[in-house]
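Quick one, probably user error.
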């Protein structure tokens, strides 16, 4: 039996310890619990243990859970971290507080349009960067970040908060570090230009250490909180 309560305690301690080691302020690192494929009881269990930020990848699945949780808990924050399908943008704009995976001007414009139809505050967005330049991965090339950022800043219903990436696993430790470091440099550059930028969404269950070392301000953790998903 996995214990979500114990897992949350452990992950919080881990974040504090790694932060201390790298001279980071652990209070500046948010923990988003990735609840994809997990049921409403698991999410409720996490909420009972003071976890209020959740990440979901699949729109339809997420909406079912968000609708139920909203009835009893208004202070949860929902982060969309999956790849964006054009026909789901309207629902993302309606149900989510954050979208981590914006990678096209067209997507940004549609998000803006649909958010405008709802009397909500702007949706927080991150630009997804394909930092490892993998052919199969989503996200833009790092050289295109500033171009897309400029376009997003013109859209009143979007609030540009920063960058998101899923670096590929690299056998060589130095090469791996270089990817994280490069992303961090781009994040700091963007932060200098735009005062709304404060978020680097980087780090999953298996790379918390490197993510914190290289400036992550938001960890997306699934397995270490809810257990493995292939069951
Ligand atoms: C599933 C997922 C996570 C969580 O991964 P774990 O390895 O289970 O912690 C984080 N980010 C994204 C984009 C994901 O799809």
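Nope, works fine. Designed sequence:
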């Amino acid at each position: 039996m996995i214990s979500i309560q114990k897992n949350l305690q452990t992950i919080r301690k881990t974040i504090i310890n790694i932060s201390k080691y790298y001279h980071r302020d652990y209070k500046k690192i948010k923990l988003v619990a990735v609840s994809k494929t997990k049921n409403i009881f698991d999410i409720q269990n996490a909420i009972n243990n003071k976890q209020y930020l959740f990440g979901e990848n699949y729109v339809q699945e997420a909406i079912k859970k968000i609708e139920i949780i909203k009835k009893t808990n208004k202070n949860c924050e929902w982060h969309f971290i999956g790849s964006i399908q054009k026909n789901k943008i309207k629902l993302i704009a309606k149900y989510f507080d954050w979208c981590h995976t914006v990678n096209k001007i067209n997507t940004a414009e549609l998000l803006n349009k649909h958010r405008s139809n709802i009397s909500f505050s702007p949706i927080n967005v991150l630009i997804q960067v394909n930092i490892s330049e993998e052919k199969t991965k989503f996200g833009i090339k790092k050289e295109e970040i500033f171009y897309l950022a400029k376009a997003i800043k013109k859209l009143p219903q979007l609030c540009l908060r920063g960058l998101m990436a899923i670096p590929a696993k690299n056998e060589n430790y130095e090469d791996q570090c270089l990817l994280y470091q490069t992303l961090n440099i781009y994040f700091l550059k963007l932060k200098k230009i735009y005062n709304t930028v404060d978020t680097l969404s980087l780090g999953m269950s298996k790379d918390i250490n490197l993510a914190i070392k290289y400036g992550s301000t938001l960890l997306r953790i699934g397995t270490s909180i809810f257990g493995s998903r292939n069951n």
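The first strand starts at residue 30 and ends at 34.
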